[in-house]
TrEMBL record:
Domain of life of the native organism: Bacteria
Gene of this entry: pleD
GO BP field: cell adhesion involved in single-species biofilm formation; negative regulation of bacterial-type flagellum-dependent cell motility; signal transduction
The entry's keywords: Membrane, Transmembrane, Transmembrane helix
PROSITE patterns found in the cross-reference section: GGDEF, HAMP
Secretion signal span: none
A GO term from the CC aspect: plasma membrane
Plastid is among the record's keywords: no
Natural source organism: Aureimonas endophytica
Name under which the protein is recorded: diguanylate cyclase
HAMP domain residues: 352-405
Domain GGDEF, first and last residues per copy: 441-576
Length: 598
């Protein structure tokens, strides 16, 4: 007679084998149904990713085109115009950032797919041409007024044209790559590229006039020819774009098409034509460089808006396709999962509701045959494993809480100056660069520098110097309002960030702090000597967030340096002078001075 264990193993094994066979067959059917759905979802996801990468490409080539405007202005004005130099530097930074983003995206997307490195090589080549163009721009911009000729300007502008043309190779290659992966995307990509080209040729029209306009000279024959060709190319591109159904009457992009005809074609082109007419005579131009920028560049904005809107339309369609494919994939997956779950429930029911009762009945029969009187009842639930599992999870949860507390302490130490207990420079920069939603963007920054601090260190020792810094930090903390930040800026310099404060309020806080420090006795640790402490204060008003935060720091630094130059122990503001009235009298104790400012 077979033993109970052998019978249980035989029935259980056969049930497991049958279950496995059914599950494998069902999984094969599910895989067959999911394969085309998954392929459609993968293709839609790749299209979305490719169009996002194409957006990076067009953004980079557009930044090269936009950079030419500040370059033209810097060359036209020459040295001695820091504002023009700054604008050019900002434009170059934006261009370099766009090119870096593109290179990073190229490595991330195409590198992961194992694509060839053609795009990366073309980007590097375009960057070399751009570097050459920038060097020529810098050479002309640095030349004295008498040494800068219109020929020099034309040559430098031609170098920037060459940089754009070099990057056009990247655009053309990416359009071809899109077509090889999905031919349906090529038409949309070419329309977007045509809008980008139209914006470039509109910008070139202005650049071609710049050399003669800057030098107040007649237009050369080569310039006139280039202007005519560029104008014809611009109209040709608009003719191609105007035929697109997406720009037709009643479409979402129709208002942009009307804006292009109204601004770029009916205002911008006639403006260039007027300057050309003036340049073919006595060169008595009615505009200067700044006037050209102010009146002509805005007429090109609808073209850029059209490029961006059409690209958004492309990406939106790809996102919608991906979403639809994902939804279908989820539905099919849920259906297949539901069938598998039903099968699993059936197998569990067979085991618990049929197999185990039969085995229990068989055991009872065997026991009766042996003369025993077994008690037949429900099987006890096995819960011991779960108890051990949750006990382990409790231990793990406790370990995670301890780790989080340790990480919080490490973050606090990383953002706090160990000597004074106030925030450090890193924490201050993080606060200044991160603008929270709903928080005031405007802010004032006060930088204080302890005067002749080296004398304290050299005369009384570094311990006395450390005590002095703690004293200054304590005074600043007392002056801070809720929401303000006190930080050690470096060495003997401290800073108070006053979000939302007005300049006059910040000046009063700084001046009363200065007086409070002067009135606060600093006693050396042995109590034998009272050392007078003085500080110079620089105050500036500006905005939080990049890049304004760094400009605010620079402004406060300039004010501090002016306070140092003016004899130290004073407060200066970066901008129109906002000094505390002389009638406020001598230094007041901290509780009467700084607290009143709040």
């Amino acid at each position: 007679m077979p033993r109970d264990g052998d019978l249980r193993a035989g029935l259980g094994g056969r049930l497991a084998l049958a279950s496995a066979a059914i599950a494998v067959g069902l999984l094969l059917l599910t895989a067959g149904a999911l394969a085309p759905v998954w392929q459609a979802f993968s293709d839609a996801g790749r299209d979305f990713e490719d169009l996002g990468h194409f957006r990076h490409v067009l953004e980079a080539v557009n930044r090269i085109s936009v950079e030419r405007g500040p370059a033209n202005r810097a060359m036209s004005l020459g040295p001695g115009h820091p504002e023009a130099t700054m604008r050019l530097a900002e434009a170059r930074t934006a261009t370099d950032r766009a090119l870096d983003d593109l290179a990073e995206a190229e490595d991330r997307i195409h590198g992961a797919r194992g694509d060839d490195a053609t795009t990366r090589r073309l980007i590097e080549l375009a960057r070399m041409v751009l570097a050459n163009g920038r060097r020529e721009v810098d050479r002309v911009a640095a030349a004295p007024d008498g040494w800068r000729t219109s020929a020099d300007l034309r040559f430098a502008i031609g170098g920037m044209f060459a940089a754009y043309d070099a990057f056009r190779q990247v655009v053309q290659w990416e359009i071809g790559a899109l077509g090889r992966r999905n031919p349906d995307l090529v038409g949309h990509a070419m329309v977007t590229d045509a809008a980008s080209e139209m914006r470039e040729y509109g910008g070139r029209l202005g650049s071609l006039v710049v050399p003669s306009l800057a030098r107040r000279e007649p237009l050369a024959a080569a310039q006139l020819t280039a202007i005519a060709e560029t104008r014809g190319r611009l109209r040709e591109l608009w003719g191609l774009l105007r035929q697109q159904a997406a720009l037709g009457p009643g479409s979402a992009l129709a208002p942009l098409a009307e804006a292009i005809e109204r601004d770029a074609l009916e205002k911008g082109l006639p403006l260039i034509a007027r300057l050309v007419a003036e340049g073919t005579g006595r060169a008595d131009y009615s505009l200067d460089i700044d006037g050209l920028t102010a009146t002509y560049v805005p007429t090109l904005k609808p073209i850029e808006d059209l490029r961006q809107a059409y690209l958004d339309l492309m990406v939106g369609e790809a996102a919608a396709k991906r979403h639809a494919a994902l939804r279908y994939l989820v539905l099919v997956g849920l259906g297949a999962g539901g069938v598998l779950a039903l099968l699993a429930a059936l197998l569990v029911w067979l085991r618990l509701g049929v197999l185990q009762p039969l085995l229990a009945a068989h055991a009872a029969v065997i026991a009766l045959a042996a003369g025993d009187a077994p008690e037949v009842g429900p099987m006890a639930a096995r819960r011991g494993e779960l108890r051990h599992l949750f006990a382990s999870l409790g231990v793990l949860r406790q370990r995670l809480a301890e780790r989080e507390a340790a990480m919080a302490e490490l973050r606090r130490q990383a953002e706090t100056d160990a000597l004074t207990g106030v925030a450090n420079r890193r924490s201050l920069d993080r606060r200044g660069l991160a603008v929270e939603a709903g928080a005031p963007v405007g802010a004032c920054l006060v930088i204080a520098d302890v005067d002749h601090f080296k004398v304290v260190n050299d005369t009384y020792g570094h311990q006395a110097g450390d005590d002095a810094l703690r004293l200054v930090a304590g005074l600043l903390r007392q002056a801070a309002r809720p929401g303000d930040m006190v930080a050690r800026f470096g060495g003997e310099e401290f800073a108070i960030l006053l979000p939302g404060a007005e300049p006059a309020f910040a000046m009063r806080v700084a001046e009363r702090l200065r007086r409070a420090l002067a009135a606060q006795p600093f006693r050396i640790a042995d109590g034998a000597v009272d050392v007078p402490l003085r500080a110079s204060f620089g105050v500036a008003a500006g905005r939080l967030g990049a890049p304004d935060w760094y400009e605010l720091i620079a402004a406060a630094d300039r004010a501090l340096y002016r306070a140092k130059r003016d004899g130290r122990d004073c407060t200066r503001f970066a901008g129109p002078i906002i000094e505390a009235p002389a009638s406020e009298g001598a230094a007041k104790p901290l509780g009467e001075g700084v607290a009143a400012a709040a």
